Amino acid sequence: MTFAALANPTRRAILARLVSGEVSVNELAEPFSMSQPAVSRHLKVLERAGLISSGSDAQRRPRKLEARPLGEATAWLETYREYWETSFVRLDGLLSELKATERKRERVARRKR
Amino acid sequence: MFFPDSFEVSLPSDREIQITRDFDARRGLVFDAFTKPELVRRWLLGPPGWTMPLCEIDLRVGGAYRYVWRSEKDGSQMAVGGVFREVTPLERLVASEKFDDAWYPGEALDTTVFVETRGITRTTITVLYESREARDAARRSGMEYGMAAGYDRLEALLPTLTGGPA
């Protein structure tokens, strides 16, 4: 659920906005030129994923970040990325080497002909 | 030429994880690098500090593969194996995937597709888990491995998340 919540660019932008502290739904709606109900729908997804919660002010109902699940989700994606990227960079090197070997073999074959 | 920026990890559905990367080589070479044990052992080394003492691949439908990695630091081992369900040379591989110390229920199904365009081969690996719970369990384990750095990096990561593609 965390990843579905993070998959949307507007929701990621909302999270980025919340890094600086509690923000009300009205304040959140402004920069996205989006209706309040639309923003509320995104907030509901984020809330269900446990990424945000409602702050203490019952009147304004500001939202705040829940750092732990978000940290876990992003840490996992980064680790996974790093693991594969390191392997793929090694594979890049191996492929260059294979290409060079192939070219050399072709040159030798041409000379023999 | 290398294409590190072409690398993408995405979650196309509740049960899948997908990885895409472009390689500057013809499809035949990339396919070999994924299917010939002597080549796989040179790049699929696992996390830093690990080696791959065993790599066996019987490349045919019904044939098995088995990879074993070992930590040089404490000697602990990690092993995965499975059976090929589909083998289309140069194009497509489908194989089951099960780790010895399976931390997620059931088997996963790995589909690897190689598409060449003007000498560049785009490789897409899709891992399909039996359930969302299985994928999330697999996800959590990878997470533990990177946990130490995780929380510290939260703030640094947020701008990346905001700017990244959907």
Task: Write up this protein.
The complex is a heterodimer of chains A (113) and B (166). Chain A has 113 residues and is mainly α. Chain A folds into 2 domains: 2-65, Winged helix-like DNA-binding domain superfamily/Winged helix DNA-binding domain (Arc Repressor Mutant, subunit A, Orthogonal Bundle); 67-113. Chain A has helices at 2-6, 9-18, 25-29, 36-48, 67-112, and strands spanning 52-54, 63-65. A two-stranded antiparallel ribbon of chain A has the order 1-2. The radius of gyration of chain A is 24 Å and the shape is rod-shaped. The model of chain A has no long low-confidence stretch (mean pLDDT 79). Chain B is of the alpha+beta class and 166 residues long. Chain B has a single domain (4-163), classed as START domain (Alpha-D-Glucose-1,6-Bisphosphate, Chain A, domain 4). Chain B has 3 helices and 8 strands; from the N terminus they run E-E-H-H-E-E-E-E-E-E-H. Chain B has helices spanning 27-35, 37-43, 132-163, and strands at residues 8-10, 16-23, 50-57, 64-71, 77-88, 92-99, 108-117, 120-128. In chain B, a hairpin with a 2-residue loop joins strand 7 (108-117) and strand 8. Chain B is globular and about 40 Å long. Mean pLDDT of chain B is 80; it is low at 143-166. Chains A and B meet through helix 1, helix 2 and helix 5 of A and strand 2, helix 1, helix 2 and helix 3 of B.
CATH class of the largest domain in chain A: Mainly Alpha
The whole-angstrom Rg of chain B is 17 Å
Q: How is the main sheet of chain A built?
A: 2 strands, antiparallel
Strands of the widest sheet of chain A, in order across it, are: 1-2
CATH topology of the largest domain in chain A: Arc Repressor Mutant, subunit A
CATH architecture of the largest domain in chain A: Orthogonal Bundle
Task: Note the overall shape of chain B.
Answer: globular
- Estimated share of beta-strand residues of chain B: 35-45%
Tally of separate domains of chain B: 1
Query: Which percent band covers the strand fraction of chain A?
Result: 5-15%
Helix-strand makeup class of chain A: mainly alpha
How many E strands of chain A? 2
Could you report the average pLDDT of chain B, rounded to the nearest whole number? 80
Let me know the number of strands of chain B: 8
Percent helix of chain B, as a range, is 25-40%
Order of helices and strands of chain B: EEHHEEEEEEH
Cα(first) to Cα(last) distance of chain B is 27 Å
Taken from the alpha-carbon principal axes, the silhouette of chain A is: rod-shaped
